[in-house]
């Protein structure tokens, strides 16, 4: 008999996704939740998958924020951070109130829309002021709490306001850590996650961050983001199919 049950394979796939997500998070400033969330939703279901993604994001972003503490953009942070925490509240309510199958469908749709927005955002054409930053923070917080992915809104903002990558990466790490923690607290739900899954996820994140540190100055931004988008699209499509099947079966 195999020492690994079939039900563990999705968790190992999620751990691999978390490792790659951590590499991209450290090297480009985003990517962890986009790559990891769809696979964790597939492995654990919509509610537990999103919460475990939030937990992984807190760890990944906290470590990244410490590494990049000299690149903090405090002027943008003072708008984006509080607005993002406010946006987490309605996002958490969506997860707490809707049936799991509908949450899975909503997660898939939100991630797909976010991917399209990130890809189509015009470069350097958005006026950068308090209202723009507050709106970006609100959208990011809502998406983080409801779907586990707050990065695309911030990436679209960064692209549209020509926010330099070093400052972007250092600042959004703080935002992701705070939003992830707030999302977990607002949901008030402990995920059903195998005991071995936590150290597996932790090891994947630590290895990914170490690799990301080494690849930071070597990785081509455009190629890295294409990889993020491709993996996110693959996982999201699978999660959407699973959610539609569950809704039709119900």
Structural notes for this entry:
With 250 residues, the protein is mostly helical. The chain contains ten helices and no strands. It has helices at 9-28, 32-44, 46-67, 74-97, 100-120, 130-147, 151-161, 165-187, 197-215, 221-249. Helix 3 (46-67) runs parallel beside helix 9 (197-215) and helix 4 runs parallel beside helix 6 (130-147). The radius of gyration is 17 Å and the shape is globular. The termini are far apart. The relative contact order is 0.22.
Question: Keywords for this structure?
Answer:
disordered N terminus, mainly alpha, single chain, 10 helices, 250 residues
Catalogue the unreliable spans: 1-6
Backbone shape: globular
The assigned structural class equals: mainly alpha
How many angstroms separate the termini?
Answer: 34 Å
Strand content: under 5%
Radius of gyration: 17 Å
Fraction in helix: over 70%
- Overall pLDDT, averaged? 82
- Please give the largest β-sheet: none
Please provide the count of β strands. 0
Helix segment count? 10
- Element string (H = helix, E = strand): HHHHHHHHHH
């Amino acid at each position: 008999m195999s020492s690994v049950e079939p039900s563990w394979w999705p968790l190992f796939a999620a751990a691999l996704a978390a490792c790659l997500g951590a590499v991209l998070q450290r090297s480009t400033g985003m990517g962890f939740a986009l790559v990891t969330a769809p696979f964790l939703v597939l492995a654990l279901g919509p509610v537990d998958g999103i919460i475990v993604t939030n937990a992984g994001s807190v760890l990944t972003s906290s470590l990244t924020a410490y590494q990049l503490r000299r690149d903090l953009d405090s002027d943008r942070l003072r708008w984006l951070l509080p607005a993002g925490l406010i946006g987490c509240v309605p996002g958490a309510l969506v997860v707490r109130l809707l049936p799991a199958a509908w949450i899975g469908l909503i997660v898939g749709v939100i991630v797909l829309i976010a991917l399209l927005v990130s890809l189509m955002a015009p470069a350097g054409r958005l006026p950068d002021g308090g209202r723009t930053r507050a709106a970006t923070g609100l959208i990011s917080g809502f998406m983080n709490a409801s779907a586990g992915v707050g990065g695309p809104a911030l990436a679209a903002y960064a692209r549209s306001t020509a926010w330099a990558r070093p400052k972007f990466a250092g600042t959004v790490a703080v935002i992701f850590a705070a939003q992830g923690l707030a999302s977990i607290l607002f949901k008030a739900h402990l995920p059903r996650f195998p005991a071995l899954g936590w150290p597996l996820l932790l090891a994947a994140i630590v290895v990914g961050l170490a690799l990301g540190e080494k690849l930071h100055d070597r990785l081509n931004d455009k190629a890295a983001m294409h990889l993020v988008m491709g993996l996110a699209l693959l996982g999201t499509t699978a999660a959407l199919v699973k959610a539609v099947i569950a809704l039709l079966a119900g």
